[in-house]
């Protein structure tokens, strides 16, 4: 249902429009019925219910933190155990009677109280075991509720708790490579897919990005890769994700656009890191890296070609895609040869800065052609950051300030002329098609 | 499957897990072998757990040159420490990477290596924290610290057949300061 506040304002407007003679009573009634029946994924009552559930969960957490001894253990346990059961009964009643928002909030409260109970039992019995195991148990309880009810709020909790679990294991307990997270993540991702839930897809992607980010060093250590080696793999991986987004878009996958966007923004991130790396950070190019890079590149290439075959990429896009992949593969090889040649290193970096700007321009044109504002904006931001970095880097070294602005100005004019030419060509083609029709 | 049944299943599975946690502890506290260890407390504060006293024992830091058993341990490895009664308290006699053969009245406690180098091992047995009422942690710690040189502080533990340890009580100057109840 629409927000009550929205409906109240609509009622006022409809009365006003009828009084003004803009619409008749019949049309107003139709509009009112339409608004009243239209479901909203994030209605105000739902949001308020979820926030209320979170506050109640925090209240229970404080109850545990207080650790008061005035009440016997059995009563402490009964209060929180009973509250958890009542929350789930309440969720059943709400969902059964059509109050979906409140029902989901009650499920979330039940999940929160399950976690609080784990902590309370650990506290009153002085259990000081490996505490991330408790967080894992909590996350599993949330995932269980997400699957059985099914519940989106519980799935959200499961993703967040799994990140806390892997974060603590990795950052506090220094687990070398917390691969167990991938089992949990795979299950939760599958549930999000079955639910066909966009936010669930985002949570899944953000969770795996979080895991990869905190485990980058561990993955590098595990395979004996340098930071440069792993950054180049990430850049190819994310470009492959973008190509996969293009393929699944053709197959009607509902979150293909989000997949493309994550691929592009992460590709830019990995490229920024990679192209500003010194030769000694690239390393020795281990055989395992060569094989991994070959496999990832082949997969990305296949996906790009499939997307081309499915008419979701143009020939110019394939050229840009293949060129970017080639540049990404070549970079570690070139850099690994330049450990002692400082002059060649500087020139290589300049060439790659040029390549980065060219890739950004290609993605910008792709975003414009597909009317994809996200890719347009991200490409503009990447272009701007790259230019700013070049400016900061060259201010006192290779170029003076006026030369920088002069070259930048000429480049921008050339780009604008190219874009104008493209616009005129497209306009002319549209006019021709319009005339033909 | 009906909605009510599915939600009931969630409640049942989550409740069984919580009941198992309690049952496991009760088993140790009721049926475990009771030993006492000397302790030295410090006091941090946890976001999740309110006030608690943090405790270290004579088995927290082990000198492998002085003890029987294995010599090479890695971080996060499981460790089995054999203790035996010496006077009023229990003290470590051997450190092992796997469950050792128990001699006489020995008790084995299972732990996890938190650090290891140069024939020295630091281990955690899940008995490092003793929760106290809000705001009382500092007071208890100060009372203990003031008398630490002259007054022995002990923790009474229950140890299961599998080596799991649970705190039963805190003993200060020969008197039971806090005694754990089952419920």
Structure summarized in a few sentences:
Chain A is mainly α.
Topology:
The complex is a heterodimer of chains A (437) and B (183).
Chain A: H1 4-20, H2 25-37, H3 44-66, H4 73-96, H5 100-124, H6 132-148, H7 152-172, H8 180-195, H9 198-223, H10 227-250, H11 256-275, H12 279-282, H13 287-309, H14 315-336, H15 342-369, H16 373-394, H17 401-436
Chain B: H1 3-31, E1 33-42, E2 45-46, E3 50-57, E4 61-63, E5 68-69, E6 78-86, E7 89-96, E8 107-117, E9 120-124, E10 129-131, H2 137-146, E11 153-159, E12 165-172, E13 175-179
Parallel strand pairs in B: 5-7
Antiparallel strand pairs in B: 1-3, 1-11, 2-3, 3-10, 4-9, 6-7, 6-8, 8-9, 11-12, 12-13
Task: Describe the overall structure.
The complex is a heterodimer of chains A (437) and B (183). Chain A is mainly alpha-helical and 437 residues long. Chain A has a domain at 1-40. In chain A, 83% of the residues lie in helices and 0% in strands. Chain A has helices at residues 4-20, 25-37, 44-66, 73-96, 100-124, 132-148, 152-172, 180-195, 198-223, 227-250, 256-275, 279-282, 287-309, 315-336, 342-369, 373-394, 401-436. In chain A, helix 6 (132-148) packs antiparallel against helix 7 (152-172). The two termini of chain A are 44 Å apart. The model of chain A has no long low-confidence stretch (mean pLDDT 83). Chain B is α+β, with helices and mostly antiparallel strands and 183 residues long. Chain B has one domain (32-179). In chain B, 21% of the residues lie in helices and 44% in strands. Chain B has 2 helices and 13 strands. Chain B has helices at 3-31, 137-146; strands spanning 33-42, 45-46, 50-57, 61-63, 68-69, 78-86, 89-96, 107-117, 120-124, 129-131, 153-159, 165-172, 175-179. In chain B, strands 1, 2, 3, 10, 11, 12 and 13 form a 7-stranded antiparallel sheet that branches. In chain B, strands 4-9-8-6-7-5 form a 6-stranded mixed sheet, with no helix packed on it. Chain B is globular. Mean pLDDT of chain B is 82; it is low at 43-50. Chain A binds chain B through residues 61, 64-69, 72-74, 77, 81, 84-85, 88-89, 91-92, 95-96, 110, 114, 117-119, 121-131, 137, 141, 144-145, 148-149, 173-175, and chain B through 3-4, 6-11, 13-15, 17-18, 21-22, 25, 29, 47-52, 75-76, 112, 124, 126-134, 166-167, 180-183.
């Amino acid at each position: 249902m629409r927000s009550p506040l929205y409906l109240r304002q609509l009622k006022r407007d409809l009365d006003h429009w009828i009084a003004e003679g803009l619409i008749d009573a019949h049309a107003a009634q139709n509009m009112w019925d339409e608004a009243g029946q239209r479901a909203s994924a994030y209605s105000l009552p739902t949001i308020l219910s979820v926030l209320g559930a979170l506050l109640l969960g925090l209240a229970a957490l404080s109850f545990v933190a207080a650790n008061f001894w005035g009440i016997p253990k059995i009563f402490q346990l009964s209060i929180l155990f009973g509250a958890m059961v009542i929350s789930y009964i309440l969720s059943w009643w709400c969902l059964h009677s059509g109050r979906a928002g409140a029902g989901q909030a009650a499920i979330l409260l039940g999940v929160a109280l399950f976690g609080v109970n784990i902590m309370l039992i650990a506290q009153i019995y002085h259990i000081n075991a490996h505490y991330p195991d408790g967080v894992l148990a909590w996350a599993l309880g949330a995932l269980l509720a997400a699957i059985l009810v099914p519940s989106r709020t519980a799935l959200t909790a499961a993703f967040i708790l799994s990140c806390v679990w892997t974060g603590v294991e990795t950052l506090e307990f220094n687990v070398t490579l917390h691969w167990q997270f991938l089992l949990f993540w795979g299950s939760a991702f599958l549930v999000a897919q079955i639910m066909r839930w966009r936010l669930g897809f985002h949570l899944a992607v953000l969770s795996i990005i979080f895991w990869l980010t905190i485990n980058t060093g561990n993955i590098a250590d595990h395979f004996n890769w340098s930071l440069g080696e792993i950054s180049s793999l990430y850049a190819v991986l994310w470009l492959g994700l973008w190509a996969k987004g293009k393929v699944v878009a053709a197959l009607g996958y509902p979150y293909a656009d989000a997949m493309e966007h994550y691929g592009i923004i992460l590709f830019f991130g990995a490229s920024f890191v990679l192209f500003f790396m010194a030769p000694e950070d690239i390393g020795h190019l281990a055989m395992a890296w060569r094989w991994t890079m070959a496999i990832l590149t082949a997969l990305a290439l296949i996906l790009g070609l499939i997307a081309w075959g499915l008419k979701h990429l143009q020939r110019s896009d394939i050229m840009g895609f293949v060129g970017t992949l080639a540049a990404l593969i070549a970079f570690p090889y070139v850099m690994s040869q330049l450990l002692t040649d400082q002059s060649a290193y500087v020139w290589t970096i300049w060439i790659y800065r040029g390549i980065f700007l060219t890739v950004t321009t290609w993605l910008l044109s792709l975003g414009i052609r597909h009317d994809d504002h996200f890719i347009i904006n991200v490409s503009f931001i990447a272009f701007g950051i790259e230019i700013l970095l070049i400016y900061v880097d060259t201010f006192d070294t290779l170029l003076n300030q006026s030369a920088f602005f002069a070259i930048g100005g000429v480049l921008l004019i050339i780009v604008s002329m190219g874009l104008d030419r493209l616009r005129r060509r497209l306009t002319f083609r549209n006019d021709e098609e319009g005339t033909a029709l | 499957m009906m909605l009510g049944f599915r939600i009931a299943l969630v409640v049942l599975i989550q409740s069984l897990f919580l009941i198992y946690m309690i049952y496991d502890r009760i088993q140790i506290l009721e049926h475990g072998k009771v030993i006492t260890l000397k302790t030295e407390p410090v006091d941090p504060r946890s976001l999740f757990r309110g006030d608690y006293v943090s405790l270290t024992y004579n088995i927290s830091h082990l000198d492998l040159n002085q003890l029987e058993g294995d010599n090479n341990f890695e971080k996060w490895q499981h460790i089995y420490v054999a203790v035996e009664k010496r006077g009023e308290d229990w003290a470590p006699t051997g450190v092992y990477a796997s469950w050792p053969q128990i001699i006489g009245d020995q008790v084995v406690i299972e732990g996890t290596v938190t650090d290891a180098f140069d024939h020295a091992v630091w281990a955690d047995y899940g008995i490092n924290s003793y929760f106290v009422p809000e705001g009382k942690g500092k007071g208890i710690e100060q009372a203990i610290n003031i008398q630490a040189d002259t007054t022995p502080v002990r923790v009474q533990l229950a140890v299961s057949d599998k080596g799991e340890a649970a705190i039963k009580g805190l003993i200060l100057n020969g008197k039971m300061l806090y005694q754990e109840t089952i419920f």
